[in-house]
Amino acid sequence: MALQTIEFELNSTGTPRRVAAPVHHGVVGSGDLEVLVSPIGKSGKLQVRIVTPVKGFEDLWRRVLTHFANETGLTDALVEINDNNASPAVVALRLRQALAEASA
Q1: Could you say which protein family the record assigns here (predicted)?
Q2: How far apart are CA 5 and CA 41, in angstroms?
């Protein structure tokens, strides 16, 4: 199984929100994924790196992450996702869980 890496940067439009320390949520299993969120400098951007076995869904990944960034205002962070065929709903859930853990 060849893996594909997708990388892009986003500008959040919500109220700026930052993480103070790295957090990890989820596991790489069938239909699931893990999310790692780490603080990075003061770039004002959200950097995203996705490793997935599924090809051809770059636009969908960008839409899900853009919605998350705009809704939460997360900025100055690196979001790393190791995917194993998760649906967009599971992706959105794991992102929110990771951010909630970072805020706890």
Answers
A1: Belongs to the MdcC family.
A2: 23
What does the alpha-carbon distance between residue 57 and residue 38 come to, in Å, rounded to a whole number? 24
Q: How far apart are CA 89 and CA 53, in angstroms?
A: 18
Using left for φ > 0, alpha for ψ between -120 and 50, and beta otherwise, residue 82 falls in beta
Residue with tokens 């599924």: 54
**CATH number for region 4-102:** 3.30.230
**Per residue of the chain (104 residues), what is the pLDDT tens digit?**
799 999 999 998 888 999 999 999 999 988 899 999 999 987 889 999 999 999 999 999 999 999 999 999 999 999 999 999 999 999 999 999 999 988 87
What DSSP string runs through 37-63? EEE-SS-SSEEEEEEES--S-HHHHHH
